[in-house]
Design goal:
By secondary structure, this protein is mostly helical. The protein has 11 helices and no strands. Helix 3 runs antiparallel to helix 4, helix 4 runs antiparallel to helix 11 and helix 8 packs antiparallel against helix 9.
């Protein structure tokens, strides 16, 4: 088995194991009191009755393929670029997260049941948490970085969903903290190690994040306008979320390569 395949398999296992455990817990009574939306009225897009359930809201359903496309693109990219094993691992974990996130959201729309709705919220947190994990790797370098630190941060992120059990807006509070930390860490590492290109990627990632949040919140308000009655605010929110993934990949991958090259030059001196 090649080193490339070994790293990919390791990344897959490290995403798949917590994914399965969360699915198991979400299908118990543990989260019965968590406030989630379980009706089509929550979405501005009109249901198409003659389509099967998995396409009942065709635009909001099909847009989830974007996560799969982005995940597979970055999972297999770039074959021709020099890439260290630790850096490849960071990228591939993030890519598997994107791929696994798509069926969760699609299932939520198809069945409108509590478990996938809880998972849709829950998985958002460790995905955002991977950004500061990757940044920590960039700042420390492969030698000083420890996988135990990454595991600890991801566990804290997963357990932070417990706030949803304590308050009706607990999930929103946890998500706001995750987004704030990710943006703060991104700005800080850009100031320390970035260049003009990474600054552009960071700006586009933050802009996409803002679109992801605002367009979802304005879903029904925007539906008053003809332009947003089929391709609704929620649909464009998901487009922004896919773009947020992509530009985060661009930003973090570029910084990883840049710091690797800087370390190589220092070592040669």
């Amino acid at each position: 088995m090649s080193h490339y395949q070994t790293v990919m398999n390791l990344a897959l296992v490290h995403v798949l194991v917590p994914f399965v455990l969360c699915v198991v817990f979400a299908n118990t009574s543990l989260f019965d009191e968590v406030e989630v939306d379980l009706s089509y009225e929550h979405y501005a897009e009109k249901r198409v009755d003659y389509l099967p359930a998995f396409l009942a809201m065709p635009c909001n359903c099909v847009v989830n393929l974007g996560y799969v496309f982005i995940g597979l693109y970055w999972l297999l990219w770039p074959r021709g670029v020099r890439d260290t094993e630790p850096g490849r691992y960071m990228r591939q974990v993030f890519a598997f997260m994107a791929v696994f996130y798509a069926p969760v959201q699609w299932t939520r729309l198809a069945v409108l049941q509590r478990a996938p709705a809880v998972l849709d919220q829950w998985f958002t947190l460790p995905i955002f948490a991977w950004v500061p994990v990757w940044i920590d790797f960039i700042e420390r370098g492969p030698v000083k970085w420890r996988g135990s630190h990454a595991a600890a941060l991801e566990l804290v992120s997963i357990f932070s969903y417990g706030l949803a059990l304590l308050h009706a807006r607990g999930f929103e509070a946890a998500l706001a903290c995750h987004v704030t930390i990710a943006v703060y860490k991104g700005v800080r590492v850009q100031q320390e190690l970035g260049d003009r290109l990474t600054r552009r990627y960071l700006q586009l990632a933050v802009l996409s994040c803002a679109g992801f949040v605002l367009l979802k919140l304005l879903d029904h308000w925007l539906a008053r306008y003809r332009l947003f009655q089929r391709l609704t605010g929620h649909f464009w929110s998901k487009v922004c979320d896919v773009l947020q993934f992509h530009f985060s990949f661009c930003f973090l991958s570029r910084l990883t390569q840049r710091t690797h090259e800087m370390a190589a030059v220092q070592h040669s001196d």
